[in-house]
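Archive entry: two folds, one per protein. Generate the first.
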Amino acid sequence: MTGLSSLFGSAEAPELQCSRKGCTARADQRLLWNNPAIHTPDRRKVWLACPEHAAWLEQYLDERGLFRSKEPITP
């Protein structure tokens, strides 16, 4: 190992983990959202979702008027 990889371990990108509480699965989608009460209209927050929890997380955000869009995670 050389450079920063010696300080932080592998130089490979870390696995992206689902944002659902307690889930450790690999995420394959990004759910973009914002809270209009506290964020500017162009601000986007991101939750990561695995295939099992993507619909649940999207519904959670949508029911609260926070969901904006969904994007696949690409390498």
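Generate the second and append.
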Amino acid sequence: MKEPIVRLVYPPDLLRVPVLNQLIQRFDITVNILRAQVGSEAGWIELQLGGEDEVVDDALAWLREKGVYVQFVE
């Protein structure tokens, strides 16, 4: 079971879109918000994702398809 920590960097056009809500509803994963910084022009959020390996991989691929930059944090 994966529990990666990732930083999601949002492009300006997604700042007002409920991406995390959609992510949780779409995939069977646990989301733990560790920190975030959101402004009117840019934003990022660091999360720990928990779930089955394949589901976490699919969730990260879905985020990338939406236009969110996914960066792994160690």
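Annotation attached to the second fold: The chain has one domain: 5-73. The two ends are 17 Å apart (CA to CA).
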